[in-house]
Amino acid sequence: MIYFPKYCLVYKHVCTYTSVTDAPIKLFLYSCFLRHPRSRNYTSEFDSCRLEAVPVEFGDYHPLKPITVTESKTKKMGRKGSTSSTSSSSSSSMIDPLSSVLDGTDPLSLFAATADPVTTAANTDTTRKKRDKDDSLVVGSDFEPWSSKRGEILARYTTTEKLSIVSALLNDFGSQKELLNLTQQDYMNRIEDLNQSLKDAWASDQKVKALKIVIQCSKLLSDTTVIQFYPSKFVLITDILDTFGKLVYERILSMCLDNRGSLPDNFTPESVNDTAKETCLNWFFKIASIRELIPRFYVEAAILKCNKFLSKTGISECLPRLTAMIRGIGDPLVAVYARAYLCRVLLTEMMERCKKLGNNALLLNSVMSAFRAEFIAARSMDFIGMIKECDESGFPKHLLFRSLGLNLAMADPPECDRLQILNEAWKVITKLKNPQDYINCAEVWVEYTCRHFTKREVNTVLADVIKHMTPDRAFEDAYPQLHSIIQKIITYFHDFSVLFSAEKFLPFLDMFQKESVRVEVCKCIMEAFIKHQQDATKDPVILNALLHVCKTMHDSVNALTLEDEKRMLASLINGFIKMVSFGRDFEQQLSFYVEARSMFCNLEPVLVQLVHACVAFCFITIPSLTSIFARLNLYLNSGQVALANQCLSQGKIGVCFNCIIILSCQKTEYYYDQSRGCTRVIRKLLESIKAG
């Protein structure tokens, strides 16, 4: 068969544009072209077969769809301040439907053309301040602002990988452009440029351009290629969304101004004029026409507060729909952050909705874990009420009380509610049968009890812990939590006479059966005593308890104990010995030193401290030391002290004779220098004896 290109081309267009689908008819048409060759003007016939160019209707063209072109041309519209429209060289110039189809009556720009800019700016600024004040009153001054979290997130979630950004914004919307191999700082700078472009476009009354910027930025949140940077990307993009939401809200609010001034603080939709309502609806209709799910969700969430201009229940009606939209997001990470943004822009409404749900335990736990402790503590009874009403099947209540307790350990609830809070929480905690669940929750609430109550309440809590953890030696699996409880108690109770007088404190210590853990607990107690005990004590309750604690530390020393560990234990015991004083009751003081010498005989630094405390130990204790240097110094010090206090029996020749024996066995320069001092001591002792 002979192939005729021109005929085939006409055939192609006839078949294509006349919707011919039947194969026999196509064959018939093809044969007709072959049977009747004649002289024809193919160019004119080709032009006649082309589609007729018709004006683009508003419903057939989507203004937000990105256009990929090879050459861009900018065409300015006649109306002042209208958005520049860009078209490709292969398509006819298209009129922006958002600015021309309404024939200059677009409510987004109509009011701006007639309003006094100075008056509008002043009223808008006043209104903004009032709105910020109202927002702080709704959530409370103790609510942590987003600005403080923003910097923390940007500093924490960083990356060294190269990033990319696809944008249709850098060439005045003429084409899409992909920027590759951007560093994190370059990426952040690009996003900041887009934020500034949004503000500039809004200031120049290019509302469509501003909307396109927000849409394109929202699309970036669907990219999770560099997953560790996604939280920071979320912060940067939502900054742009927040800026857009504020601009739209303030614009509509400024349209409500009249001779009476701005709207009242708690305005109703009835007080909003028709122009403002029409503008608000126009924005929501534009956003509803966005084809892609993620940008449509984020942009609508950004202006969610604008529903207040249309209906009293507008926000609460939109929440279920927006929540359902998130289910259509396939990437779980993107979906989670979408929910986070929804909670961030309408917090109060989400909490109200949370109260109405029965299965809100997981959401409550997330709120208590993420919000500032001061915010949670101020509303403790409200949270307890929600915890009691929530369904326990999906998330256990004791975990909710644990999260609440963590907040109350860092911030104080109202004083009038403190006891009721403890009673409500402990009713749930004490009913727990699983020892691990119980101790995990009780550990948190012990700190709350120590923080706000006395020895009586703490003793009650300790008794309950002993009751739950003693059966089947459950305490052996909970040493970290039990150790944490001890640390919390000694953090808040610095009066050790009160602490050791608690009936259940020492029995609580007895649960530490593992030696290494028991020694660590004793070390914590001794460190706290040395740090907080300011005055010397002779309280028998303190002495008996701390002697028991020090004895536990001493008995842990063996041949494998490191020298550093020995020095540390000896330092703690010496700190305790120094804090004991019976005043002028020398018999009691000597009795204490004798008991201490018998209990701590394996730690030489402790024996040295006791020799310094009691000169009578110079006869037996000094010779038992293994360090020659320590013995020499103690002999010299003992002789000097005895001489100064006229204790000639303790400073007799036998002591000094021992010094001479030690010195005679050593030939070093150190001992030679020390021997001269020893000789002076001997001479003075002899003179004192002769004089006596």
TrEMBL record:
GO biological process entries: endocytic recycling; protein transport
Low complexity: bias regions: 82-93
GO CC annotations on file: endosome
Entry keywords, A to Z: Endosome, Protein transport, Transport
Keyword Coiled coil appears in the UniProt entry: no
Keyword Membrane (UniProt): no
Region annotation Disordered: where it falls in the sequence: 72-97
InterPro entries: VPS35L
Subcellular localization, as worded in the UniProt entry: Endosome
Superkingdom assignment: Eukaryota
Family named by the database record: Belongs to the VPS35L family.
Listed name of the protein: VPS35 endosomal protein-sorting factor-like
Gene: VPS35L
